[in-house]
């Protein structure tokens, strides 16, 4: 859960890419608060707390609105929303003493309200009474929380305003102006989008630039009315109204392009009383930049194909396949660990593959007819066509009969994907998994690779859009002996359109695999070169298996049941697909297996500056960002 910017941007994208989760913005306001100050009115702020493992944890706090019993807070909380989880929230309102901070120890408690994020999202707008300790009502005090889904927003806007010749509202000094930007909702109500800082003693203020999402600014409707109000700040909360003007985002863009982005700041009362009245100053749009933000779905719906290759470990550490203790042992009554993992992960993964066919490779086995060790062989023993029809393909049943050899050398397989291609100066590839293999394949799109230098960039033909992305799924018992070469391969692969999912099978020590994940820091090659992106996701299958077995015990059955799973943990609430799966925890499986893939896809194409096909960047727009 993350909060908006301190000065109140509605959705401040900050650094790109954005986190991969469905996002909801929460906007807060209060009415009829208790007045705890003897000489002035309360200075309220709201602390947001979330329940985690039975404990309330403060995750953010609004700004302080001085001397107000009916505050409208500009700071917006952006929260991750999961429809399958009960996310309990608590809003605590305080009369703040001293500077606004995280601690509330010295502040006077004005009331609190508890609810779930699901309740807020379902109703979109929730108004509840504030309660004091022991459930007593805090007078007529209420808090209103408005939720807005921003997971489908398609960009953010950078705006910068200045003003000229504003009215002077102060007797012994000049006005201290600040500007408020509002969106007009369908019910004609005003929703605060942003409040600028106060510029002291200045009738020609220049306010700091700020960022807001297009969804927050105008609900992604460029013709939606907007209203700007300019005030003279008063420390007691009794701000003097200077003037206002109305516009739309569409009008702002057009006026800015034509160099005429300025509006009369009008006080309706003055205009009504004075015939000679023209304005109370002029507000000028000094800068406008629109940053298009593409999501994972934008790329998928734009025709980007995601291709899967599965690689299975047949090294001797798995044990003799004729022994019932072997991870590759064929039990006529139940599948072995590898096939369980393959079904568990593959049935989710194959829904991302357009033709439901994927290459199935093996490493670390002695292959007939010569029974020589191979770290790159087709599991169906057909080097001309190693693809299988889904996870139940005939080639996968043959896989369990390989003869193990030696130790797990994962790097040769990874070099099949990355370094072999990188060592080529300039070469056209028809299919990424076939790099370094002398065989022909149906063309699935062509990629152009740059010269092999440290940090060399992947290039695509001029005018290309995002078309192909590859995911390598490795099933292994985790005993890796060539870690240095594997790290080198992953660092090079981080510059390619690919992700690597590693599923650990059995009870071996997976410490090295955790290192490859990169969640605890940037993965580096033995030479110290950092990975461009975090492309590895490691999942220990035993954890998923334990969850599944526990679920089966609760059901009292091991029957295979159809369940509805999200296509990705990061696309919850946006679109879903029917997937058949063992009765495990759908949320845990989606999170563990595919949690980071959508972000990795968008990160790659955003870094390359490649828009989704059919969604090129119009002239004058900023480079595409990313979200998911």
Write the layout of secondary structure elements.
Elements: E1 2-3, E2 23-31, E3 44-52, E4 55-61, E5 77-80, E6 88-95, E7 108-116, H1 117-123, E8 125-131, E9 137-149, E10 155-164, E11 177-184, E12 190-195, E13 210-213, H2 214-218, E14 225-232, E15 240-248, H3 249-257, E16 262-264, H4 268-273, E17 282-294, H5 296-301, E18 305-313, H6 337-349, E19 357-363, E20 365-367, E21 372-374, E22 377-378, E23 387-389, H7 394-399, E24 403-404, H8 411-417, H9 419-422, E25 428-429, E26 447-449, E27 458-459, E28 468-476, H10 483-493, E29 498-504, H11 511-517, E30 536-540, H12 541-555, E31 561-566, E32 576-581, H13 586-594, H14 597-608, E33 622-626
Parallel strand pairs: 17-33, 18-19, 18-28, 28-29, 29-30
Antiparallel strand pairs: 1-5, 2-5, 2-9, 3-4, 3-6, 6-7, 8-9, 10-13, 10-17, 11-12, 11-14, 14-15, 16-17, 19-22, 19-23, 20-21, 20-24, 25-26, 26-27, 31-32
Helix pairs in contact: 6-13, 8-10
List keywords for this structure.
elongated; 5-stranded antiparallel β-sheet; 628 residues; disordered N terminus; 33 strands
Plain-language structure description:
With 628 residues, this protein is α+β, with helices and mostly antiparallel strands. 19% of the residues lie in helices and 32% in strands. It has 14 helices and 33 strands. The strands form 8 sheets. Strands 18, 19, 22, 23, 28, 29 and 30 form a 7-stranded mixed β-sheet that branches. It has a 5-stranded antiparallel β-sheet with strand order 1-5-2-9-8, covered by helices on one side. Helix 6 packs across helix 13 (586-594) and helix 8 packs parallel to helix 10 (483-493). The protein is elongated. The two termini are 16 Å apart. Mean pLDDT is 74; it is low at 1-20, 394-402, 414-463 and 557-587.
């Amino acid at each position: 859960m993350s909060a908006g910017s301190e000065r109140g941007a509605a959705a401040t994208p900050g650094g790109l890419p954005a986190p991969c989760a469905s996002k909801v913005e929460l906007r807060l306001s209060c009415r009829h608060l208790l007045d705890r100050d003897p000489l002035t009115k309360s200075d309220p702020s709201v602390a947001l707390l979330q329940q985690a493992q039975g404990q309330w944890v403060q995750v953010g706090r609004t700004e302080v609105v001085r001397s107000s019993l009916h505050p409208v807070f500009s700071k917006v909380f952006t929260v991750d929303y999961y429809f399958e989880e009960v996310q309990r929230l608590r809003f605590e309102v305080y009369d703040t003493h001293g500077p606004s901070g995280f601690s509330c120890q010295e502040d006077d408690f004005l009331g609190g309200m508890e609810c779930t994020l699901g309740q807020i999202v379902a109703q979109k707008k929730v108004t509840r009474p504030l309660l004091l300790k022991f459930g007593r009502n805090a007078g007529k005090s209420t808090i209103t929380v408005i939720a807005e889904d921003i997971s489908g927003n398609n960009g953010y806007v950078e705006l910068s305003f200045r003003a000229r010749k504003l009215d002077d509202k102060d007797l012994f000094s000049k006005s201290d102006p600040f500007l408020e930007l509002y969106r007009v909702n369908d019910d004609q109500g005003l929703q605060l989008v942003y409040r600028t800082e106060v510029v002291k003693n200045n009738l020609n203020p220049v306010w700091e630039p700020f960022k807001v999402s297009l969804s927050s600014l105008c609900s992604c409707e460029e013709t939606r009315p907007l209203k700007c109000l300019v005030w003279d700040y008063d420390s007691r909360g009794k701000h003097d109204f200077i003037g206002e003007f109305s516009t739309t985002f569409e009008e702002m863009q057009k006026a800015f392009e034509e160099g005429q982005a300025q509006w009369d700041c009008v006080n309706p009362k003055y205009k009504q009383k004075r015939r000679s009245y023209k304005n109370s100053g002029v507000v000028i749009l000094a800068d406008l930049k629109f940053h298009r933000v593409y999501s994972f779905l934008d790329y998928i719906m734009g025709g980007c194909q995601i291709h899967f290759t599965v690689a299975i470990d047949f090294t001797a550490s798995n044990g003799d396949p004729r022994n019932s203790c072997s991870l590759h042992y064929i039990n006529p009554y139940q599948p072995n660990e590898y096939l369980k993992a393959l079904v568990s992960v593959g049935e989710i993964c194959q829904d991302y593959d357009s033709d439901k066919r994927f290459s199935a490779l093996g490493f670390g086995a002695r292959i007939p007819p010569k029974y020589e060790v191979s770290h790159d062989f087709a599991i169906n023993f057909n080097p001309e066509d190693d693809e299988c029809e889904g996870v139940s393909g005939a080639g996968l049943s043959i896989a369990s009969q390989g003869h193990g050899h030696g130790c797990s050398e994962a790097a040769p397989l990874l070099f099949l994907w990355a370094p072999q291609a990188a060592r080529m100066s300039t070469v056209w590839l028809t299919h990424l998994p076939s790099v370094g293999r002398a065989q022909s394949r149906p063309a699935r799109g062509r990629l152009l690779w740059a010269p092999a230098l440290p940090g060399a960039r992947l290039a695509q033909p001029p005018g290309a859009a995002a078309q192909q992305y590859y995911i390598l799924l490795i099933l292994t018992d985790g005993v890796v002996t060539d870690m240095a070469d594997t790290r080198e391969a992953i660092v090079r692969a981080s510059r390619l359109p690919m992700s690597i999912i590693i599923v650990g099978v059995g009870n071996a020590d997976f410490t090295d695999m955790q290192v490859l994940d990169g969640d605890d820091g940037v993965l580096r090659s033995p030479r110290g070169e950092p990975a461009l992106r975090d492309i590895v996701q490691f999942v220990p299958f035993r954890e998923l298996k334990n969850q599944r077995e526990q679920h089966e015990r609760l059901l009292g059955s091991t029957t295979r049941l159809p369940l509805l799973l999200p296509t990705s943990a990061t696309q919850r609430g946006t679109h879903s697909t029917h997937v058949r799966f063992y009765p495990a925890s759908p949320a845990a499986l989606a999170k563990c297996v595919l949690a980071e893939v959508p972000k990795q896809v968008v990160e790659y194409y955003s870094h390359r500056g490649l828009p989704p096909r059919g969604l090129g960047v119009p002239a004058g727009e900023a480079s595409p960002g990313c979200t998911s």
